[in-house]
Write a structure and sequence with these properties.
The structure holds 2 protein chains of 2 kinds.
Chain A: H1 11-17, H2 22-41, H3 44-66, H4 75-90, H5 96-118, H6 123-143, E1 160-161, E2 165-166, H7 170-192, H8 195-205, H9 207-212, H10 217-243, H11 253-266, H12 273-287, H13 294-309, H14 313-322
Antiparallel strand pairs in A: 1-2
Helix pairs in contact in A: 2-7, 3-7, 3-10, 3-11, 3-12, 4-5, 4-6, 4-10, 5-6, 5-10, 7-10, 8-10, 11-12, 11-14
Chain B: E1 17-28, E2 31-42, E3 46-50, H1 57-64, E4 72-77, E5 80-81, H2 87-92, E6 95-97, H3 110-119, H4 139-148, H5 164-177, E7 182-186, H6 194-207, E8 212-216, H7 220-226, E9 229-234, E10 237-242, H8 244-249, H9 251-259
Parallel strand pairs in B: 3-8, 3-9, 6-7, 7-8
Antiparallel strand pairs in B: 1-2, 1-4, 4-5, 9-10
Helix pairs in contact in B: 3-4, 3-5, 4-5, 5-6
């Protein structure tokens, strides 16, 4: 469509692969409309929570679904960014956008350090290395004075965006969070559909073959690990501003597990799966809160059921029905 | 020790050797899989590596392609020492391997599979901010490569859904897209039906026109038919080397093949 083809004969071939698939554009547009209406219908803080986790799960999915790397320590990036953003906003009194950026930067650096070591191992060993490092970060969060230990960092001021727009209203904040999350997810979409993303998928599908074609796979893996960590950090830092709170829950291993669960439930390796997974899990946690500790059990049952019944996840199954990648 | 074994196999003048190994050895904790193997592959020939099961062919192959690091010995490609280079580096120098099991990218389409190889020409693809359309520039050439191996009808099918023989054909198209100077084929006929064997044999002969091929192969009729030169490995060492006629009459080779079962 947009690329001039050399000959008439290959034009249909090129056309088929050029440009963003129409149904993706339609889904993104529909999603945006829904999310613009959502705060008028639903409790904005709840939707913001869903959004933050949707971004977090999409970040993990970038690594897991497209890079083929299962990180079991993504809470380290989510949590550390959350702490740094909360600290920057509360103690240093920085604007929320700067606080969030500092959080992202922290997650990126941490991702570079952990990723550089973890990518030297494959499969379950990779997952274990990321888990081990995440536990170290958790330990630091428990011990370090600035994190507030068990109390976390509370009463984080939401401040003024760019020093101008007051974010204390949930309503105003909602649209800022929507912009951040939507931007993040579009960014991930672009990464997946870039020349880089193409190599990434090749490595996921067959690493030795990618090497034999001359690709230095470790560099690609590290790059995607840092991207994923940074985006997880963006989610964590944004969440700290939304809830005005950063706590040990954000760095705990169960957070790492939960985001893996969201991704698998929604459909790993799909664009929209993590959003659905995050929405389902967060909704469940909110509406089943009355069951107390049983929520975990219910989650466990759902997880087992989803893995047994539809391994491709909710969106994965729908995509199979429609015979279109989602 | 290899060349001296059999006086019938007088080596040709080694003027034009593309790949050569000297004293190549690989030890796995206490077990020597490949023991001081020397090999010279002449430019423009099809060289086969055969031997009974457990002879160390695959290990030797992995050493040459840097998927394993040798315990001792050197490898040279076009007179340059490549012993310490990474697997990706030697691929960039024109030595590309295939795998025993078909090596495609199952979730990518046939077109995308070949394009991944062509994409290497851009150098590294770390541009995560660019849309995928920039790769459409390779579509025409990729389509031509796919056409060569007769897979044009499957252009947009996921490679994982092709039959086994077609996967191998796709693999060959992908490899050729890199325009390698030398190919290392690891059991190209493994697990193939006879009609596929004939087809892939013809394809190998066709692509050998201006390149060098070193292949590990069990199917001796294919080896006899295709190879210019054969190296026989047994228990990690070179048993004999020469033309098919030479090695097939070599007593030690016959013994290794027939005697392997009742030691």
């Amino acid at each position: 469509m947009t690329t001039p083809s050399e000959t008439e004969i290959i034009a249909p071939v090129a056309a088929r692969h050029v440009g963003t698939p129409r149904h993706h554009i339609a889904i993104f547009a529909g999603l945006l409309v829904l999310l613009l209406i959502a705060p008028f219908v639903l409790y904005p803080v709840f939707v913001m929570k869903v959004l933050c986790f949707a971004l977090f799960a999409s970040a993990l999915n970038l690594l897991l679904g497209f890079g083929g790397l299962l990180s079991f320590g993504h809470a380290a990036f989510f949590g550390s960014a959350s702490y740094v953003a909360a600290h920057a906003a509360k103690v240093w009194g920085l604007n929320p956008e700067i606080a969030i950026l500092l959080g992202v930067f922290t997650a990126a650096l941490l991702g570079l350090a952990i990723g550089a070591l973890a990518i030297k191992r494959q499969g379950i060993y990779f997952a274990m290395v990321t888990l081990a490092f995440a536990q170290m970060v958790y330990f630091l969060a428990v011990q370090a004075p600035f994190t507030g230990g068990e109390d976390g960092i509370q009463a984080v001021p939401r401040g003024r965006l760019f020093g101008l727009i007051d974010l204390s209203s949930d309503f105003t904040l909602y649209f800022v969070v929507l912009a951040i999350v939507f931007g993040g997810i579009l960014g991930i979409y672009r990464i997946i559909h870039s020349p880089f993303g193409q190599v990434l998928k090749a490595i996921r599908d067959n690493e030795p073959r990618s090497i034999s074609l001359g690709y230095k796979v470790e560099r690609y893996k590290l790059a995607v690990f840092v991207m994923s960590a940074s985006l997880a950090g963006l989610a964590g830092a944004t969440k700290a501003i939304v809830f005005q709170l950063s706590s040990l829950t954000d760095v705990y291993w169960s957070m790492s597990g939960e985001v893996v669960l969201m991704t698998l439930l929604g459909g790993m390796g799909t664009v929209f799966g993590p959003l659905v997974g995050a929405a389902v899990i967060v909704t469940m946690e909110s509406y089943l809160a009355g069951f107390g500790a049983w929520v975990t059990v219910i989650q466990g049952v759902i997880f087992v059921a989803s893995v047994m019944l539809f391994r491709e996840g909710i969106v994965g199954v729908i995509a199979k029905w429609l015979k279109k990648p989602l | 020790m290899s060349a001296a074994l059999d006086p019938a196999t007088v080596s040709p003048p080694k003027s034009d050797i593309i790949l050569s190994a000297r004293g190549l050895t690989k030890r796995f904790s206490g077990f020597v899989a490949v023991h001081e193997v020397d090999i010279d592959v002449e430019r423009g020939t099809i060289h086969a590596l055969i031997g009974p099961n457990g002879a160390g062919k695959t290990t030797f192959f992995n050493l040459l392609t840097k998927f394993l690091l040798p315990s001792a010995g050197t490898i040279t490609l076009n007179d340059r020492d490549i012993t310490r280079l990474s697997a990706a580096d030697i691929a960039r120098r024109g030595l590309v391997r295939s795998f025993q099991i078909s090596a495609v990218f199952p979730q990518l389409s046939v077109l995308e599979n070949v394009r991944i190889a062509l994409q290497r020409r851009r150098g590294d693809s770390f541009d995560f901010w660019r849309p995928q359309h920039v790769l459409a520039a390779f579509d025409e050439e990729a389509t031509a490569r796919i056409d060569e191996v007769g897979l044009s009808v499957y252009l947009h099918e996921p490679a994982g859904e092709l039959s086994y023989g077609r996967k191998r054909a796709l693999e060959i198209a992908t490899t050729l897209a890199l325009e390698p100077e030398m190919l290392l084929l690891d059991e190209p006929m493994a697990g193939m039906a006879q009609e596929d064997v004939t087809r892939i044999s013809a394809l190998i002969r066709k692509i050998s026109a201006n390149r060098t091929i070193l292949m590990v192969e069990h199917n001796l009729s294919v080896v006899a038919d295709l190879s210019d030169r054969i190296t026989v490995l047994a228990r990690g060492q070179v048993l004999a080397e020469g033309s098919y006629a030479d090695v097939s009459q070599n007593e030690r080779v016959i013994e290794a093949y027939i005697g392997a079962g009742n030691e």
